[in-house]
Amino acid sequence: MTWLLRIYFSLYCLLPAFAGPVNGSIRLINSKDPEVRKHQNFSGVVVWLEPMGGPADRFSGDKNQSSVMAQKMKTFSPHVLAIPAGTPVEFPNFDPIFHNAFSSYSGQVFDVGLYPPGKSRTVVFKREGVVRVFCNIHSSMSAVIVVLKTPYYAVSDPSGSFTIRDVPPGEYLIHVYHERALPQTLKAMECVLRVTAEGLPVMQLVISETGYVLTPHQNKFGQEYPPSEDQLLYSRDSK
Ligand SMILES: [Cu+2]
């Protein structure tokens, strides 16, 4: 009998714990953004689960598994990228013009310099945090990279849906990041999620953009952007 129990116990320890998806949907309210108001575009919200009492603070991504933030039509794509800490991000330039990528934010300060069409630059994001990314020659270009110390995260699609894959049973703290929500709004949304082997109902999160004001950013020298060629042409024509 003891022998049988020992085998059973060994097998139980060796079997991987059930891990399933956590599904959810986001709805943005009180927004002044036309994409949200007219087209109900709820994309770009990052949701992640921090294991409570777990080894999340030691988690790092695979340094051989890179992510991509492309530069195309003077736009960073995707606009919001979530990655595990330690992940390299490539910035390929698909435009016929030079681009740059930099951040002066404390999440990670970096500057890849100017680089020509068809080339790419890579940055490894080691520290957990929110990194706002800009191009030093095109003031309209911006993006966000959310660097996480957990493998359990997702970014919402335009319908607001998201799926966090392979979440083992346990207790987690839910965190949310949205570019146009105030920090206190996001902090107030943190709550505990219990994942059981039986699965979960769909999480429904409503995020208010109340209080958000778009402020222009500065270039990598901490100065205002000089007028672009488009703006100069416009001001010449309008005289
Ligand atoms: Cu650019």
Taken together, the total number of domains comes to 2
Strand adjacency order, main sheet: 13-2-15-16
Q: What hetero molecules are in the model?
A: copper (II) ion
Indicate the percent of residues in helices. 10-25%
CATH superfamily grouping of the largest domain: Carboxypeptidase-like, regulatory domain
Rg over alpha carbons: 22 Å
User: First CA to last CA: what distance?
Assistant: 95 Å
Average predicted local confidence, pLDDT: 86
Q: Just give the CATH class of the largest domain.
A: Mainly Beta
Total beta strand runs: 17
Reading the helices and strands in chain order gives HEHEEEEEEEEEEEEEEHEEH
Describe the global form: globular
Q: Number of helix segments?
A: 4
CATH architecture of the largest domain: Sandwich
The structure class reads: alpha+beta
Taking the sheet with the most strands, its summary is:
4 strands, antiparallel
Which fold does the CATH topology of the largest domain refer to?
Immunoglobulin-like
Strand content: 25-35%
Q: Which spans have pLDDT < 50 for at least 5 consecutive residues?
A: 1-16, 231-239
